[in-house]
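Ticket 4471: requesting a sanity check on a complex prediction with magnesium ion. Repro inputs:
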Amino acid sequence: MSAIALRGVSKAFPGGLAVRDVSIEIADGELLVVLGPSGSGKSTLLRLIAGLDEPTAGRIHIGGRDVTSDPPQARDLAMVFQNYALYPHKTVRDNLAFGLRMRRVDAAEVAARVDNAARLLGIDALLERKPAQLSGGQRQRVALGRALVRQPRAFLLDEPLSNLDPVLRASTRAELALLHRRLGTTMVYVTHDQEEAMTLGTRIAVMRDGRLEQLDTPLEVFRRPANVFVARFVGSPAMNVWRSDGRDLGIRPHDVEVMPPGAGDVDGQVEVVERLGTATLVHVRADRPDSELVRVVVAADRAIAVQERVGLRLRPDRLHYFDERTGERISVEADL
Ligand code: ADP
Ligand code: MG
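Returned structure tokens:
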């Protein structure tokens, strides 16, 4: 059993609280993504789980046992960072084997685990190379392989794909999902990239200023964001949010339709047209007292020009309402 539980965990640094009273129950075999902007406390949370930092308050349980005061070695977890350091003078094989040899795992077992990890990661043809002879993506795989051969109770991954270019990032992301499915090992995956969180996570824990803002499946976070912060942070292009009748009104760019002037809920003028290839993102200046810019996604082949007058229809079943003061979601009938 390698469920992980955080109960009322806080971490204070001289500069303030990096993690504030966070409680999360991570199921055995789950892939939990911790998502938040830079400085929101994601890495600190991971380091607390790993035992690299000790919480100021709260308890941490792994596999049903309280490990709050245990050193990292006693927790049997493997961590992968963004800035992985491989031994430059060792071959890939020796990079993978090194940690196991240090632990005096016998040679036949080391060889078997290295071969198995290399096969899983598709780096079996690279075992005799040195890190300098590898691409960035291949190096990151070796870093993952070093975690894999340890057969830990859980993997902790801190922005492991951030150094890769977008294409490689997307493919490595898919491979990670596959790897998680094959291994069935608990993973806690930290990222600031909402797309990565949406595609990878069994559930997403959204953090801001050390606080857990929402903990839910990707679809729930997308469909029913707990507050304005989550609403704006998750989903691309970002949700439109504006003030209306004493509350904040939100709608995703995909849920606004472009109509002839007068035929929608509000008219406006097209200010910017961004052709993304698969779709077109249009920014419309609404004829309203605050003249908000509304982001609208239309089909890629639709003819639409800057300065064109349009009507906008907001799909009523896709509107989000938030408390103007607290930013918290206001439940509406569509939520139930
Ligand atoms: P994230 O990983 O989400 O970018 P971090 O967990 O690294 O965020 O940092 C959260 C906050 O805690 C930041 O304000 C950061 O400056 C602070 N912090 C992190 N580590 C330390 C430390 N060792 N000493 C002091 N402050 C720290
Ligand atoms: Mg970080």
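Notes from triage: The first helix runs from residue 42 to 50. Leaving this open until the requester confirms.
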